[in-house]
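Suppose a classmate hands you a notebook page containing two proteins, each written out with its sequence and a corresponding row of structure tokens. How would you begin to make sense of it? This section walks through that situation. The first entry is reproduced here exactly as it would appear on such a page.
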Amino acid sequence: MKKKRITFNSPIVLGFVIISFGVMVANYLTAGLSNQLLFLTYHSSLASPLTYVRFFTHVLGHSGWSHYISNMMYILLLGPMLEEKYGSRAIIEVILITGLMAGLANWLLFPGVGLCGASSVVFAFILMTSFTSFKEGEIPLTVILVAIIFIGQQVYEGLFVADNISNMAHIVGGIVGAVAGYTLNKKA
């Protein structure tokens, strides 16, 4: 009988989950101060170097354990498949670009709102996943349906549901994921 072993199969995704867990613990231990300083993007001065850091790092911070767990479940479900198909470099680039775009959009469009969490990355991964069977000259029906349902839901919730969820970040993440999925599959 062959021995089974645990493998570190998706270094970027697993690293992201582990670092986010550490950020969550630090946020808990500092009563929210670590998120406020490093892992929450908001309309702070462009003269502060931390403003630029937070444009990227806000995807690591979460408002609470349920927020963290729900995002990490999707990332652990979708991320390893995407990392295996596209490679670690592509996945880290998607995470960084998604963080930057969502952070900038929040800074520009919602000056009174703080943004933290990996939801934008989750939605980037969801849209990227719908492109995994993409072939040149074809548009999979699944891509069209995911885009319509996803964007429709986010627009509806953004207009008619009063909650603490950034639908803008979801839409930005979805756009980044769709562009990345299309581009990466076109290269392949």
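The notebook's second entry, a different protein, reads as follows.
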Amino acid sequence: MTPLEWAIVALAAVGAFFGGVAAVGIVRLPDIYTRAHAASKSDTLGAVLALAAVALAIQTDLSTIKAVFLLLFMFLTNPTAAHAIARAAEDQGIRPWAAENREGDP
């Protein structure tokens, strides 16, 4: 394998890892605020790394430019959308999870 192929595989693997971390975070975390954090950070990083792998793998001028623009678009819009969701939850009066909110505590 060439160094370029190794870079593509590494970027795709790390992107898939962070996508998995985001999925686990969304399922396991207790409230909307922590879930939005997992979605905005891990999912964005995973998608950006996977799109970087795609941009390296395609290596045609127009398709690579499109992949880079999509990468930048996701890098800017995913955290903004998560912030908007968290702001909407706050406006609706949804309180953040705290240790005293756990079930079974006295």
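A careful reader of the second entry would note: The chain is about 80% helix and 0% strand.
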